[in-house]
Amino acid sequence: MSKRQKLLLLLTGLLLAIVLASFLLAHFLFREPTYEGKTLAYWVNQIGFPSSPEPDQVQHARIAVRTLCKNHIPALVDALKYDYSPRFVEARRKLAWLPGPIRDTLLDRLFPDHRSLRGAIAGRAFWALGPEAAQAIPGLTRLMYSTNLVVAMNAVRALSGMNTNSFPALLHAATDPACPARCGVLVGIGRMSYLGTNALPAVPMLVGCTQDKDPQVVEYAVLALGSLGLEPSLTVPAIRKTLEHENPTVRAAATSALTALDPSSLTNAPTQ
Length: 272
Fold this sequence. Notes:
mainly alpha
């Protein structure tokens, strides 16, 4: 056997070894862990956004997720860094005329996206981990400022389910015009009513946002105040002022928020 043949044989063997090693590594990394014989996907699907009180089975699911994920938090953050493929986006645009559930089912069947599935699982895992995932907040904050709004909103959803630990990062982003996902952050803060009075630090910030120059910021700040339902003596007057806003969407949001907070405040409201 010539030296050239030996070299080719060696290179071929090395290549096969690399391929095999890559396969085994990928199998190890993406093999879904189990708890009590059920996968992580199963357990995260048993929990929703944080609420209180919760059924026993939901609390058990949170324990399962914490057990499976507490040592893999950096991997959860990485899983949120995905975007839909151009083919998926184009297909979704063309199928926009279909009812939502039918469209989503077709897209899932025709364009299965394992990365987005892992991202969805990771996002819900953070809801279960809560304060135990505090080490992820700096990384999630960086993602929240991504110009890729899909990635940014993945981070917002994760942060808004992590209890008070993530509150400072969200409050800062909500007042930062440089944050591309600023309106989404306001939506995320509005979903944190599960914190009860622990969400009070958000109220002055949201009241300030009702005077923002951007109508979308005003709209989502008003809706967030209605969702949190805190300090009506401060929030109701601020929201009532937006009933006179030139933007009809803002006025509609104000009516919705006041209905949730104090329906009587709509009596003798300014003419729209």
